[in-house]
Amino acid sequence: TTARFTLDPAFTVGEVNPRLFGSFVEHLGRCVYTGIFEPDHPAADEAGIRTDVLDLVRELGVTAIRYPGGNFVSGYKWEDSVGPAEDRPRRLDLAWHSLETNRFGLSEYIDFLRKVGPQAEPMMAINLGTRGVAEALELQEYANHPSGTALSDLRAAHGDKDPFGIRMWCLGNEMDGPWQTGHKTAEEYGRLAAETARAMRQIDPGVELVACGSSGQSMPTFAEWEATVLKETYDLVDHVSLHAYYEPHEGDIDSFLASAVDMESFIDNVVATCDHVGARLKSKKKINLSFDEWNVWYLSRWEQHAEAHDPADWPEAPRLLEDNYSVLDAVVFGSLLIALLRHADRVTVACLAQLVNVIAPIMTEPGGPAWRQTTFFPFAQASRFGRGQVLDVRVDSPTYETEKYGETDLLHATAVRADDGTVTVFAVNRSRTEPLPLEVALSGLDLTSVTEHSALADTDPDARNTLDDPERVTPHPVEDTTLTDGTLTAVLEPLSWNVIRLA
Ligand code: AHR
Fold first, then answer.
1. What is the reported pTM?
2. Which ligand 1 atom is nearest residue 359's CA?
3. What ranges does the record give for the region Disordered, renumbered to this chain (predicted)?
């Protein structure tokens, strides 16, 4: 049977904020060291940034880049990471049981962003685990104040005369998680976040602040946490954060393929919670969502590793969380992108966790090449073609049974209309065995041709790109997709991510 939907420019979800295509660089494993930064690498520039990685980051089309954590930020002392590199202290990183040299720090991060290009925007997390209001203000002064104060002059003395202009700040990271250094109750965190936000706005009322929401929808404190935190911070912050990672559990691939069902319900539930607090406060303001960590992550493998490691060992830039993604993973990943786009009215920031080596679309070998994982392609295509108005897509699709989510649509789709009137359909076929015929009725859209139908699919859903075979998986063109008399007709391969561009 055929899956169907209608596109009509009169029915839209909202405008895509470019920040939806953000990513995340954490001091974790090899994301920074031998990932984006490797002074001895043949492709490194004068500052030690790998230019081969920079090229791929640009091609990926990332916008906001969150930094420096993640769990790492809850032990972060920003002042360790500035000034002459040879004077910077080596510290224990409790979050990842590693040794942090601070060779790469705040100035290097800003330099990296500038080299990525004007689309790249800083998104700085502050430590509300082991630290508080005073240190947040000091960091803000060092980073953003033009000159003439102790910390802004110190920045200039360190070689950065121009302020960094950091607009977006995350008030801590996953403070609801017992694993977080300095973990807090919702009441404790809500107060601290409110006081920090209030003080940061005294320096600059124009900062944009993200309060920590839950580390996942399955957290026991979920929703109550957001409600409590927002009760304290509603007028002081702009966004609340969401984090979600997906992997197959006990080999249940069909439920894994439907992971976006969970992601969409998570978004809906956080929107409802924010609006509930807003209603109680009789506020006209809406809190937006910053989905600032999302991905496929084989977390259970990491947990086994963490249990096995030697507590006396504090390695520098170890290989951690280096998941190698399959075609199957990329299809689920594409579906997560579709979920974010489908909620573009309220999800105004999202960060793919992470950027290089650590659960990442880009992989590198120390001293060696950099290459694209399977997940690189859906992200790059969505960032490139998913700009404009998201159209309201209501699918009528054949379904399949999943253990976790019950009856689920085989088709997951969205569509984005660019300013020039062209439309891109993003669609996933969740069937592992059957092609899915698709018919899209175009109403009120002046479109006459299919510019491109690209698919990521493979006869082997386990196919991956590796150091030895870095281009094993790439998207391929699909023939026979037509647009006649206002109807788009296509066939989506089993287990596929599809990008159909109409002009
Ligand atoms: O992205 C990896 C980790 O996942 C982050 O450090 C943390 O915030 C989350 O638990």
1. 0.98
2. 1
3. 453-482
